[in-house]
Amino acid sequence: MAKSNNAYIKKQKEFQRKKKQQDKQARKEERKKNATGGELENMLAYVDEFGNITSTPPQKKTEQL
After folding, report:
1. Integer Cα distance of 30 and 43 in angstroms
2. Per-residue pLDDT at 2
3. Domain boundaries in the chain?
4. CA distance 43 to 55
5. Could you give the C-alpha distances from 61 to 14, 18, 23, 49, in angstroms and in order?
6. For 4, which DSSP code?
7. SS3 of the chain: helix, strand, coil, percent, to 5
8. Which of 11, 18, 31, 49 has its CA at a distance of 20 to 30 angstroms from the CA of residue 65?
9. pTM passes above 0.70
10. What DSSP state is assigned to residue 14?
11. What is the model's pLDDT at position 48?
């Protein structure tokens, strides 16, 4: 009887697992490098008096008595 391919299959699975981990790590580093920043000021949106969404805060109006 011929020897089974278990050793070969195990090596192939291990190689595929390591390659998958390396690819995942590379994608993670690429995302970190291209990150724009998740600061709160960048995520805020404002609504003006006409209901339009803008990225600039509204100017405060002073009331005249």
Report:
1. 22
2. 59
3. 6-54
4. 9
5. 66, 61, 54, 12
6. P
7. 50, 5, 45
8. 49
9. no
10. H
11. 87
